């Protein structure tokens, strides 16, 4: 059975993920990261790679995609909160993101390239 992280485990394991751009969300007991890719195709390719990883690990993220932006959360539904599965999966996901920009301020509105493309008359 998968168990939630203890407070001591959180204190030890979450700061390095924070340095990598993952933010803890206490309301949903999850970690979240937002990537901005150069195009929809790059974002979709990243999501495809993450999907294959998720199947291999038997652990699936909650995510949202808008054009070139991928907003991803990790939490373990089996224990209703953060577990070691989330902590192990986060750096593996990071390794799949390539040179995507990270939106570190998660309170900031997420803006995608589609607005720019539309303003240029290409969307």
TrEMBL record:
Q: Which UniProt keywords apply?
A: Lyase
Query: Superkingdom of the source?
Result: Bacteria
* Any Pfam family: Pterin_4a
Gene3D superfamilies assigned: Transcriptional coactivator/pterin dehydratase
Q: What reaction does this enzyme carry out catalytically?
A: (4aS,6R)-4a-hydroxy-L-erythro-5,6,7,8-tetrahydrobiopterin = (6R)-L-erythro-6,7-dihydrobiopterin + H2O
Name the EC number(s).
4.2.1.96
Give the main EC class.
Answer: lyase
Citing just one GO molecular function, the answer is: 4-alpha-hydroxytetrahydrobiopterin dehydratase activity
Q: Does the keyword Electron transport apply?
A: no
Biological process terms from the Gene Ontology for this record are: tetrahydrobiopterin biosynthetic process
Q: Where are the transmembrane segments?
A: none
In its keyword annotation, does this UniProt entry include Lyase?
yes
Q: Which HAMAP family match?
A: Pterin_4_alpha
For this chain, the family text in UniProt reads: Belongs to the pterin-4-alpha-carbinolamine dehydratase family.
Protein name listed in UniProt = Putative pterin-4-alpha-carbinolamine dehydratase
Name the source organism.
Rubellimicrobium thermophilum DSM 16684
């Amino acid at each position: 059975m998968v168990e939630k992280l203890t407070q001591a485990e959180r204190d030890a394991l979450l700061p390095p993920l924070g340095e990598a751009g993952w933010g803890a969300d206490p309301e949903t007991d999850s970690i979240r990261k937002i990537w901005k890719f150069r195009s929809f195709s790059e974002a979709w390719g990243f999501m495809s790679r993450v999907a294959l990883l998720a199947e291999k690990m038997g652990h699936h993220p909650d995510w949202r995609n808008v054009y070139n932006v991928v907003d991803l959360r990790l939490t373990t539904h089996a224990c209703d909160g953060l577990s070691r599965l989330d902590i192990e999966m986060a750096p593996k996901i990071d390794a799949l993101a390539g040179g995507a920009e990270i939106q570190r301020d998660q309170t900031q509105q997420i803006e995608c390239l589609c607005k720019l493309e539309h303003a240029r008359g290409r969307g």
